[in-house]
What we know:
Elements: H1 3-10, H2 14-24, H3 43-56, E1 67-73, E2 79-85, E3 88-89, E4 94-99, H4 103-110, E5 113-120, E6 125-135, H5 138-147, H6 150-158, H7 168-182, E7 193-207, E8 215-222, E9 225-230
Antiparallel strand pairs: 1-2, 1-5, 3-4, 4-7, 5-6, 6-7, 7-8, 8-9
Helix pairs in contact: 6-7
Flavin mononucleotide is lined by residues 64, 67, 80, 82-85, 96-99, 102-104, 161-162.
Amino acid sequence: MPTYQRIDSCHSTRIDDKNMELEQLRRSYADGFLQIDQFPRNPMDAFKTWFEEAKAADRPDWLEVNAMTVATSSASGDVSARILLLKKITADGFVFFTNYDSAKGIHLAENAQAELLFYWPHREQQIRIHGSTEKTSAALSDEYFHERPRGSQLGAAVSPQSSLVDSREQLVESAIKLESELNGAEVPRPANWGGYLLRPNRFEFWQGRPSRLHDRIVFQISNDGWQITRIAP
Ligand SMILES: Cc1cc2nc3c(=O)[nH]c(=O)nc-3n(C[C@H](O)[C@H](O)[C@H](O)COP(=O)(O)O)c2cc1C
């Protein structure tokens, strides 16, 4: 028996079996293709089209089409990523809402650069959006805060997002106490809760293709407007 086979058989543990399954998990992408000359010249338009198409094909029971990964980093280069919900698309960019004192809020205060990432498996599509963030106006944060269900408003008001808490019960108690103190009055938006606007300076539209020869169309902002190019998969 050749040596490599003996080594293989020595290591055939359950963990190895699982790794084998992971290695064999692969999907062939064949649903779409991207042609640079037929792509919208403005990436915001392209994003909106893809978003609407992803939403149209959405199965609301299992997919949140506006869920996106938001990657941030500290001034020293420590990175972090988490899912947030895209809540507004404006002429200037993309808006999400969160706690300004959270881990991500601290990152964004140190380094305003961030990347948004959407993955829509049912469309075999990914969009990366890089840009610079800034806090939205207090008026916009107020408007969105008061559109949220009252329970979410109370939750945001009592949750010191990303900080240590003694217990879940303590958070629930704080929400019940606040609700009773308010006695039906409007929940004030906490000063440390609000929106961020990401102003995009780079987009990448990715479409899965057969044999891993995927399509990648990149938009990069320049003094002459958006430059559109194709990059290798
Ligand atoms: C589907 C989904 C949607 C979420 N939407 C938000 C959101 O819009 N805002 C938010 O602050 N956290 C949201 N979260 C929670 C974040 O992923 C994260 O746990 C939280 O913002 C704290 O992140 P941080 O400690 O990195 O600041 C969402 C999580 C999931 C799974």
